[in-house]
Design goal:
heterodimer; A: mainly alpha; Rna Polymerase Sigma Factor, Chain: A; 3 domains; 9 helices; 69% helix; globular; B: mainly alpha
């Protein structure tokens, strides 16, 4: 089956700007979320997502439909995220032990997100704490383990696709995900119940 | 497969990334081993916890920011400096190659027209300086030279 995104990109290459708009509309949410899960800051995630689509726009002339459009798009996203992490590490402004933003200035954002369910203040607090712990657990992963985990859990990509995006073997993806998930399981143990329902 | 080996494959198993044979092997092991079953359950639970995270909605001004960036990019590309820059960028390697080719061609034709006597002179001087201008059958200090010296001395003694 032909990749409809590839067709849109080829249309855009011919000068049809509405095809580019369609691509942005279709993928902006997942790209923002991948970056958000990786970086942990909403504003920064949106800025980087703008940069991702700007790169798509600029690369249109040279674009060749070699793989799935989303693989290419996630590759651009991953490279930008990894560069961002490197830049931050250089500036020494990032620390794995830094307070989690989701638990601080993003309070209104969190309330906005859970407003529909009308939870009690206790539930809001619990969710805030849990989100902070999850954020901290994700932040603690090495960059490539983190990206592989995000692409697998949130974007539901196969190991093969992740290996193409990260430029490594499928075995390496398997290893990264094994270590990442083992580490996440340990860090989130306070929220996990040990009862096994079976059925695996 | 022992528990350790099974556990290393559990994540791939839960993600549905194993081949049928391995999948059956692990499934069978899990039905018999409570510890590995517990491990699989915890891994699965942590996956669900992560998966249950809220999905961000893009802010309303996301598209506006993108178009603003695209507009300023287009504007910059239309500036005369940018056009000149692109021309220089494209023409510079070609110009350097042309100059090199012309240089080599002119150099070789000049050498053909005006043979340089100074080069030969320099070459001769150099050969003289390292002692290669005259033929020496026996280098000084060599074994053949010592042998010949001894033989001629013996000849003189014998008369």
């Amino acid at each position: 089956m032909p990749d409809s995104d590839v067709s849109l990109m080829l249309e855009f290459q011919k000068g049809d700007i509405s095809s580019f708009e369609k691509l942005v509309q279709k993928h902006k949410e997942s790209i923002i979320n991948v970056i958000y899960q990786f970086i942990g800051e909403r504003d920064e995630a949106e800025d980087l997502a703008v940069e991702v689509f700007l790169r798509v726009y600029r690369a249109a002339k040279k674009y060749q439909a070699k793989a799935k459009f989303t693989t290419w798009l996630y590759k651009i996203t991953t490279n930008l995220c990894l560069n961002e992490i490197r830049k931050k590490a250089k500036l020494q402004t990032i620390s794995l032990s830094k307070p989690i933003s989701a638990g601080e200035e993003k309070e209104e954002e969190l309330i906005e997100k859970i407003a529909d369910a009308a939870p009690s203040p206790q539930q809001i607090l619990e969710k805030k704490e849990r989100n902070a712990l999850i954020r901290k657990a994700i932040d603690s992963l090495p960059a490539k383990q983190r990206m592989a985990t995000i692409l697998q859990i949130y974007e539901e990509l196969s190991y093969k696709e992740i290996s193409t995006i990260l430029g490594c073997s499928v075995k390496s993806v398997e290893r990264r995900l094994y270590w990442a998930r083992t580490s996440l399981k340990e860090r989130l143990s306070s929220y996990l119940t040990a009862e096994s329902s079976g059925g695996f | 497969m022992k528990c350790k080996g099974i556990r290393r494959k559990l994540v791939a198993y839960l993600d549905g990334e194993l081949r049928e044979k391995q999948k059956l092997l692990i499934k069978k092991h899990l039905s018999q081993c409570a510890e590995c079953r517990k491990e699989a359950h915890l891994l699965n639970e942590s996956f669900c916890l992560l998966k249950g995270q809220d999905y961000l909605k893009p802010s309303e001004d996301f598209l506006a920011s993108l178009w603003e960036r695209i507009y300023s990019l287009e504007k910059r590309q239309l500036l005369p400096q940018a056009i000149f820059g692109r021309l220089v960028h494209a023409a510079l390697p070609a110009a350097v190659t042309a100059v090199l080719i012309i240089g080599v061609l002119v150099g070789s034709s000049v050498e053909k027209i005006i043979p340089s006597p100074t080069v030969k002179l320099k070459e001769e001087r150099y050969l003289t300086s390292i002692g290669l201008d005259s033929f020496q059958d026996l280098p000084t200090g060599s074994l053949p030279e010592i042998y010949l010296n001894l033989a001629s001395a013996e000849e003189v003694e014998n008369g």
